[in-house]
Specification:
Layout lengths: L1 H16 L9 H5 L4 H4 L4 H16 L5 H23 L3 E4 L2 E5 L25 H8 L3 E4 L5 E3 L12 H8 L6 H4 L32 E3 L6 E3 L8 E2 L2 H7 L5 E2 L2 H12 L3 E3 H4 L3 H4 L2 H21 L22 E3 H5 L1 H22 L1 H4 L22 E3 L6 E3 H6 L5 H20 L1
Antiparallel strand pairs: 1-2, 2-3, 3-4, 5-6, 7-8, 9-10, 11-12
Helix pairs in contact: 4-5, 13-15
Length: about 425
């Protein structure tokens, strides 16, 4: 007990001797006895200052070993509490929006309020204080990426989150065909101002050609005061039909819907919507080939019980055979990155199955036509042919040389015929 009290006194003296040039530390924080629970301040800024203070104390050469151990314990408690504070992001639900505080990684210079059009407040202040300064100023919707000031939440012109409409009508499902029913897939289906009775499609005020802008997503006219102020976005219909990723002018409501479609796993069946893309875009046939091989590889890794089994880092729908031609909008936009990710996963699984895992290698095949025991075959290899009836694997050249006659199917056929003969003889 005496040694602990002596260490605490030394710690208090060392704390009081440390001076900061630009940051002030509360006096009660310096003079409080060493107690992990009592020493943790409640404010985030005070925590960051305390962490910096104790880091300097630990690095001081005159600090003895026992004091360093106590300081490390205190430092760990402070870091854990700060991490918990960072994870406790305030969540607000308003008009269907799942609103969170903007994170430190968001640059406040580019955040524009979707209601009033003002940028988030920003001043050239130190980074330690900057997050606490503007975090409470701007919120962001997790679904449609709407940025809005906290003070603008109660304004009557706040737009409804597209998630509400999708959830209400059940437009999100595991069916690839049903997922994109709510997305406009016609290129700018303009109907004209006369059909809109010369009124804004959203706020219903009177407009004309000089006071309105057409939305390239839904083909409707919107007022330039509030509903269409020049925002741009990629258009799903132009991507599917023309492979065109040029951002085009869209209304604010359409921008929220497109952002929602991009943030959610809404699948587009490329083969059904525009099969000509497979002949126009070189990456799509290559991706389809890789995905077919990955589907076979995943059947091996799902049965593998070894601790060296690699973890899959790609979306689940990319490894489902029924969704072989389906992609999300973000995957189509970032298709070079998608191809890079699939190739990386393909190489990892290939190395695990064919090189390092004895359990997976034990599930390989030998060619029964040439009886080459040195060449282990797998269904995802490029030099194999697979029987469509029993899925037996052979060398491609051997299989075609034998006129696609599967020895396994022949054995099964002979076995079934013998069983039938035996049943007839007993009867």
């Amino acid at each position: 007990m005496m040694s602990g009290s002596k260490d605490d006194d030394n710690l208090s003296q060392a704390d009081s001797s440390l001076q900061f040039e630009s940051l002030e530390v509360d006096e009660d924080l310096e003079e409080t006895p060493f107690n992990i629970e009592d020493e943790i301040p409640s404010r985030r800024h005070d925590m960051e200052v305390a962490i910096e203070k104790y880091m300097k104390l630990i690095r001081m050469p005159e600090t003895d070993q026992n004091m360093k151990e106590n300081l490390v314990t205190k430092l760990c408690a402070l870091r854990i509490k700060l991490h918990e504070m960072n994870e406790e992001i305030e969540k607000t639900s308003h008009f269907g929006h799942s609103l969170y505080k903007c994170q430190d990684t968001d640059s406040p210079k580019i955040l524009v309020c979707g209601s009033c059009g003002r940028r988030s407040g920003w001043l050239p202040i130190p980074s330690l204080l900057r997050s606490s300064f503007y975090e409470s100023d701007m919120l962001v919707c997790n679904s449609c990426n709407l940025h809005i000031h906290r003070d603008c939440l109660n304004k009557p012109d706040l737009r409804l989150c597209p998630r509400v409409d999708f959830d209400k009508q059940g437009k999100l499902s595991t069916s690839c065909e049903r997922n994109y029913e709510a997305v406009v897939l016609k290129i700018c289906p303009e109907i004209g101002l006369a059909k809109q009775n010369f009124k804004c499609n959203e706020c219903n005020i009177n407009i004309n050609l000089s006071t309105s802008n057409i939305c390239d997503y839904d083909g409707r006219y919107y007022c330039t005061n509030r509903c269409h102020t020049g925002d741009t976005s990629v258009i799903p219909a132009r991507i599917i039909h023309n492979w065109d990723f040029t951002p085009r002018p869209v209304s604010k409501s359409s921008l929220l819907l497109i952002n929602y479609v991009r943030s959610r796993p809404i699948l587009f069946n490329v083969l059904q919507l525009n099969s000509m893309l497979y002949g126009f875009v070189d990456e799509l046939p290559a991706l389809k080939k890789i995905r077919k091989e990955l589907i076979s590889m995943v059947q091996y890794t799902r049965l593998c019980k070894q601790p060296s089994r690699p973890k899959l880092t790609i979306s689940q729908h990319l490894m489902e055979e029924s969704l072989l031609d389906c992609y999300t909008l973000d995957e189509l936009i970032n298709i070079p990155q998608l191809q890079k990710d699939l190739i990386e996963v393909h190489s990892t699984l290939m190395y695990h199955i064919t090189k390092i895992c004895e359990s997976c290698k034990g599930k390989g095949f030998y060619c029964e036509l040439c009886h080459d025991k040195a060449d282990l075959l797998f269904p995802f290899a490029s030099n194999i042919a697979s029987c469509p009836q029993c899925s037996a694997v052979y060398h491609k050249n051997c299989y075609h040389r034998k006129n696609r006659r599967c020895t396994r199917c022949m054995r099964l056929k002979e076995k079934n015929s013998r069983v039938l003969k035996d049943e007839e003889s007993f009867s």
